[in-house]
């Protein structure tokens, strides 16, 4: 006997939400229809109108029309039934249950009304009550196997595994061994910690069809989930005796070998699995991808990850995913040239994946190769004109190449698209601030920085750059000092930020404080090699009347490559020139 099990009416079983309530169509007040024939005609009209609305998917209108019908005829069980179904559709479980109860009470013989009542109990998570409805239906219709099955399902949902198991055993006596029943029973048995009994249920399926490999998988998973490694391993070996290249079994055995620190066995099984081109590449990628996270904690994982990706490439030499994954692996390890080669290979096989283009642009930006980044980002914006990040990288390349108007245009296009993540939108605004400053558009620069800080108020780079540019112009120095100090609170060991703060104090004529902060910066080797810091130190020293020492630092700044306007005159004339 063949049986198809379906939990009747369980679509959307956990629908939640609320309906705004039943609406009543407006009728002329004070007018009462007394003629029974007219009443019946009016009711029929409302009923058929509601049916049409329901068929058109206009459920709320149908609810209103059925509700108006009930004002004329309160004893039509079918209308209560229809309203119950509709309230489940519009996600109002409480109303659905109320109308389902009424339908089932008015007509106890209609099994569809009883099923709807069970469904309404279910969407209200009253699974005991739903099971009770199907219990009554099984008595009324003893030959209907679906009702018995549904009773078992709801008992299971009501957390009554023993009672549910008894129902499924009763059903199995009628139907024989059926796959869906076995699945239900083994889940219940496992919930009751009856592992051997659950395994015995799956063994029934294996005995019935010994060539069906997925039954063996299920049995192995039961043993594995309950730490019966030896039994699970035996099952995987049985699978390999039937299918020597079975990837799932090989992966399972590889995992056990690794737990036992048998690395030779681990790689032997894994190599066999990954070398199988029939093993889906998406599953292989999913297996390897966690290595990208593990590498951050354990650098030795890089070698393992690269070995696995090489196996994937060898088995799938024409699949772009293999090279993209290997590119990710190299990128994570900061092996940028190798990452670039693999991303490029991936794009030569499949140029439709924006994520790979994005990774390649990111590589060029990390390699500080703005010319290559500009060429690539131009191609990306032509190919993917609605992708935010293409224009961001185009703007970045333009800025690094000092093509400021082009950079501003690209960055504003990115903002126009506006589908970037919040953190990237802040990056765009920050870069716009830099580009506007470079072109002397100070109002636009300040506005961009302010928007960047609204999105990311603890961005030390923005706080530093914005405050420094304000100090260069001698504007809003109190605000500049506040922002600079905040950047130092975020990154207290940054000599660059110390220099900025010192320079702002200098612009406020707080020369002694400025000296204290720039000397803190000068304790760092990079600051001692920075011509701007050296020149600032000279400026501060001069205004503290340490002229000889100031000239020495101005000369050191010049020797390190400082090119600021007036530096040569400062040295020659031994005086500060703003």
SSE topology sketch:
Blueprint: H1 36-55, H2 59-72, H3 77-89, H4 93-106, H5 111-123, H6 127-140, H7 145-157, H8 161-175, H9 179-191, H10 195-208, H11 213-225, H12 229-242, H13 247-259, H14 263-274, H15 281-288, H16 290-297, H17 301-315, H18 320-332, H19 336-349, H20 354-366, H21 370-383, H22 388-400, H23 404-417, H24 422-438, H25 442-455, H26 460-473, H27 477-490, H28 495-507, H29 511-521, H30 525-528, H31 531-543, H32 547-559, H33 567-573
Helix pairs in contact: 1-2, 2-3, 3-4, 3-5, 4-5, 5-6, 6-7, 7-8, 8-9, 9-10, 10-11, 11-12, 12-13, 13-14, 15-17, 16-17, 17-18, 18-19, 19-20, 20-21, 20-22, 21-22, 22-23, 22-24, 23-24, 24-25, 24-26, 26-27, 26-28, 27-28, 28-29, 29-31, 31-32, 32-33
| Biggest sheet layout | none
Secondary structure: number of strands: 0
Structural class computed from helices and strand pairing: mainly alpha
Global geometry: extended
**Ends distance:** 98 Å
Q: What is the CATH level 1 assignment of the domain at 351-457?
A: Mainly Alpha
Mean pLDDT: 88
CATH architecture of the domain at 351-457, by name, is Alpha Horseshoe
| CATH homologous superfamily (4th level) name of the domain at 351-457 | Tetratricopeptide repeat domain
Radius of gyration: 37 Å
Helix proportion range: over 70%
Instruction: Kindly estimate the percentage of residues that lie in beta strands according to DSSP.
Output: under 5%
CATH names the topology of the domain at 351-457 as: Serine Threonine Protein Phosphatase 5, Tetratricopeptide repeat
């Amino acid at each position: 006997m063949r049986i198809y099990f379906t939990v009747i009416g369980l679509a959307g079983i956990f629908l939640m939400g609320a309906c705004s309530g039943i609406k009543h169509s407006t009728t002329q007040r004070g007018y009462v229809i007394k003629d029974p024939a007219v009443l019946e005609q009016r009711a029929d009209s409302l009923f058929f109108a509601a049916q049409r609305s329901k068929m058109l998917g206009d459920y709320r209108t149908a609810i209103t029309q059925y509700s108006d019908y009930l004002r004329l005829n309160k004893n039509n069980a079918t209308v209560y039934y229809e309203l119950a179904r509709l309230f489940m559709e519009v996600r109002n479980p409480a109303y659905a249950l109320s109308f389902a109860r009424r339908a089932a009470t008015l007509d106890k013989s209609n099994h569809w009304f009883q099923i709807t009542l069970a469904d309404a109990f279910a969407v209200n998570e009253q699974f005991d009550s739903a099971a009770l409805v199907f219990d009554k239906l099984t008595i009324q219709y003893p030959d209907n196997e679906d009702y018995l099955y549904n009773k078992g399902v709801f008992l299971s949902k009501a957390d009554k595994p023993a009672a549910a198991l008894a129902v499924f055993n009763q059903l199995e006596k009628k139907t024989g061994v059926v796959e869906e029943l076995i699945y239900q029973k083994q889940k219940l048995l496992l919930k009751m910690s009856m592992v051997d009994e659950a395994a015995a249920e799956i063994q029934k399926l294996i005995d019935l069809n010994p060539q069906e490999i997925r039954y063996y998988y299920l049995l192995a998973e039961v043993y594995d989930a309950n730490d019966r490694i030896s039994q699970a391993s035996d099952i995987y070996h049985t699978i390999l005796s039937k299918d020597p290249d079975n990837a799932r079994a090989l992966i399972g055995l590889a995992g056990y070998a690794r737990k036992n620190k048998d690395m030779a066995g681990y790689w032997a099984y894994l190599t066999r699995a990954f070398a199988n081109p029939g093993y889906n590449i998406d599953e292989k990628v999913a297996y390897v991808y966690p290595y990208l996270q593990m590498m951050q904690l354990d650098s030795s994982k890089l070698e393992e990850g690269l070995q696995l990706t090489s196996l994937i490439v060898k088995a799938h030499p024409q699949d772009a995913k293999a090279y993209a994954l290997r590119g990710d692996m190299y990128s994570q390890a900061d092996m940028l040239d190798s990452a670039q080669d693999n991303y490029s290979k991936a794009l030569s096989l499949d140029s439709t994946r924006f994520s790979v283009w994005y990774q390649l642009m990111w590589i060029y930006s990390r390699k500080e190769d703005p010319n290559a980044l500009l060429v690539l980002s131009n191609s990306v914006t032509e190919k993917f004109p609605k992708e935010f990040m293409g224009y961001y990288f185009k703007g970045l390349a333009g800025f690094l190449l000092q093509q400021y108007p082009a950079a501003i245009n690209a960055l504003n296009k990115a903002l126009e698209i506006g589908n970037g993540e919040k953190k990237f939108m802040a990056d765009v605004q920050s870069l716009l601030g830099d580009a506007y400053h470079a072109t002397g558009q100070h109002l636009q620069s300040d506005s961009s920085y302010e928007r960047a800080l609204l999105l990311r108020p603890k961005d030390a780079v923005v706080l530093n750059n914005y405050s420094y540019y304000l100090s260069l112009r001698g504007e809003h120095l109190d605000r500049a000092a506040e922002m600079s100090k905040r950047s130092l609170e975020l990154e207290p060991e940054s000599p660059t930020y110390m220099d900025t703060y010192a320079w702002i104090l200098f612009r406020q004529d707080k020369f002694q404080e400025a000296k204290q902060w720039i000397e803190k910066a000068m304790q760092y080797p990079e600051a001692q090699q920075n011509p701007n810091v050296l020149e600032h130190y000279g400026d501060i020293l001069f205004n503290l009347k340490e002229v000889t020492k100031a000239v020495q630092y101005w000369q050191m700044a010049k020797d390190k490559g400082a090119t600021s306007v007036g530096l040569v005159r400062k040295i020659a004339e031994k005086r500060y020139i703003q």
